[in-house]
Amino acid sequence: MESKTIHIEMDCIHNHRENTMTCLWNNGEIKIVVDWNTGQLGVMNRGRVIEVRDIHGMGIDEFMKLQEQCQGYADSLAAFDCMAV
C-alpha cells in the first residue's frame, strides 16, 4: 500500500453541545458540516449547500478525499482572490 502525505489547511470546530463538527477553508467560504445527530454532512460554498452525504458507513479514506477536494476548491478560489487585489 502506497503512503502519501497530504497537507490540508483548514480550521476544525467541534461543537459538543450541538454534536457537530465543522471544517472550514478560506475563513468559512468553503466548509463541511458534520451533524452526528442526523448522520449527515453537508458541503457548503459561501453559505449555500452544494452536497449532502450520509456519514453512516463512510470510511476515513472517503472523508479525507472529501477534505482534499474542498482544499483544492478553496485553493482555486483563493487564486482568484489574489488576482483581484
Oligomer: single chain
Number of helices: 1
**What is the overall shape?**
globular
DSSP summary, beta strand count? 5
N-C termini distance: 43 Å
Write down the Rg. Answer: 14 Å
Please tell me the overall pLDDT: 88
What does this entry look like structurally?
The termini are far apart. The longest helix has 25 residues, at 60-84. Helices cover 29% and strands 35% of the residues. The chain is of the alpha+beta class and 85 residues long. It has one helix spanning 60-84; strands at residues 11-15, 20-25, 30-35, 40-45, 48-54. Strands 1-2-3-4-5 form a 5-stranded antiparallel β-sheet. The protein contains 1 helix and 5 strands; from the N terminus they run E-E-E-E-E-H.
What's the topology here?
Blueprint: E1 11-15, E2 20-25, E3 30-35, E4 40-45, E5 48-54, H1 60-84
Antiparallel strand pairs: 1-2, 2-3, 3-4, 4-5
Please outline what is shown here.
By secondary structure, the protein is an alpha+beta fold. The protein has one helix at residues 60-84; strands at residues 11-15, 20-25, 30-35, 40-45, 48-54.
List the main descriptive attributes of the protein structure presented here.
single chain, 85 residues, alpha+beta, 29% helix
